[in-house]
């Protein structure tokens, strides 16, 4: 699989377009660490679809972040760290949101994981060994557990479509999916799960194939998962990036960060 599919666009560019089309004018989106793809999607949406979209990247709202390095970089050649509105300690950021003021931090959130299961649970904590104990430690959930629970919209994304990533049941839960939310009486849940091969939505709390990217197939999608999602009778091909979307993305992405995103890891 080449970096630029058919010589026209990269995998990362298509994934950014998928997300950008879903964001709305009244959304307030928070972008976490190492999520350049979601930042690109948000900036694209802001410039083409939703001009009033608010973007909270790292420590503040702004409209001019670079994709790489991130806003919290120590690289003095970057302008990102100079244009944020304010700086906050991590615990203070978490204190902004609560059940009565959930939208003050954000109402739209992006989350990934070492594992993602069929109900949209995500795992950033670690992987169990055969003895049931932690074998591999992950980065930890940081603020994703609380933020993803409080946000009105959650998008799951992964740069790896494989059996080790898309599992029947996650080893640990750092971001809750539809099943847990229903049992606890928490409204909402993940809207989409975007991978390098396809886009999933959720039907009855279970993952369902929404579209398949032009370079993939149903057979490939299913063969690289540890569970079978809901498979509709007719599955469309994911809409390719338009010339307007690509023009804006490439103006945003001056350092070609997106060209390196989405290289599939086959397990």
Description:
With 267 residues, the chain is an alpha/beta fold. The chain has a single domain, classed as Glutaconate Coenzyme A-transferase (3-Layer(aba) Sandwich), CATH 3.40.1080. It is built from eight helices and 15 strands. It has helices at residues 11-20, 36-48, 80-83, 90-96, 144-150, 178-184, 218-223, 243-252, and strands at residues 4-5, 9-10, 28-31, 54-57, 60-61, 108-111, 115-117, 122-123, 126-128, 134-137, 153-157, 166-167, 190-194, 198-203, 206-212. It has an eight-stranded mixed sheet, sandwiched between helices. Helix 1 crosses helix 2 (36-48) and helix 2 crosses helix 8 (243-252). The longest helix is centred in the N-terminal third of the chain and has 13 residues, at 36-48. It is globular and about 50 Å long. The two termini are 15 Å apart. Mean pLDDT is 81; it is low at 1-6, 59-65, 68-73, 83-87 and 263-267.
The helix count comes to: 8
Strand order of the largest sheet: 5-4-3-6-11-13-14-15
Q: For this entry, what is the oligomeric state of its chains?
A: single chain
Class per helix and strand makeup = alpha/beta
The name of the CATH topology is Glutaconate Coenzyme A-transferase
CATH homologous superfamily placement: Glutaconate Coenzyme A-transferase
- SSE arrangement, N to C: EEHEHEEHHEEEEEHEEHEEEHH
Give the CATH level 1 class: Alpha Beta
Q: Give the radius of gyration.
A: 18 Å
Mean pLDDT: 81
| CATH-scheme architecture | 3-Layer(aba) Sandwich
The biggest beta sheet reads: 8 strands, mixed
Overall 3D shape: globular
């Amino acid at each position: 699989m080449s970096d630029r599919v058919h010589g026209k666009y990269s995998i990362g560019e298509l994934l950014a377009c998928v997300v950008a089309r879903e964001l709305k004018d009244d959304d307030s989106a928070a972008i976490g660490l190492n999520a350049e793809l979601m930042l690109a999607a948000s900036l694209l949406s802001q410039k083409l679809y939703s001009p009033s979209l608010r973007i909270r990247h790292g420590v503040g709202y702004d409209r001019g972040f670079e994709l790489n390095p991130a806003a919290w970089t120590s690289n003095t050649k970057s302008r990102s760290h100079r244009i944020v509105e304010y700086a906050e300690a991590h615990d203070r950021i978490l204190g902004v949101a609560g059940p009565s003021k959930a939208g003050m931090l954000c109402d739209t959130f992006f989350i990934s994981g070492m594992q993602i299961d069929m109900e949209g649970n995500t795992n950033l904590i670690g992987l169990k060994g055969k003895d049931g104990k932690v074998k591999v430690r992950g980065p930890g959930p940081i603020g994703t557990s609380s933020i993803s629970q409080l946000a009105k919209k959650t998008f799951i994304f992964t740069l790896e479509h494989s059996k080790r990533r898309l599992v029947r049941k996650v080893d640990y839960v750092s971001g809750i999916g539809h099943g847990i939310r229903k049992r606890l009486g928490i409204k909402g849940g993940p809207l989409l799960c975007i991978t390098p091969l396809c886009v999933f939505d959720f039907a009855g709390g279970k993952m369902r194939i929404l579209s398949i990217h032009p370079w993939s197939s149903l057979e490939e999608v299913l063969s690289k998962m540890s569970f079978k999602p809901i498979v509709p009778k007719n599955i469309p091909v994911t809409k390719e990036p338009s010339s307007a979307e690509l023009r804006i993305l490439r103006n945003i992405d001056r350092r070609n960060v997106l060209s390196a995103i989405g290289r599939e890891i086959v397990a």
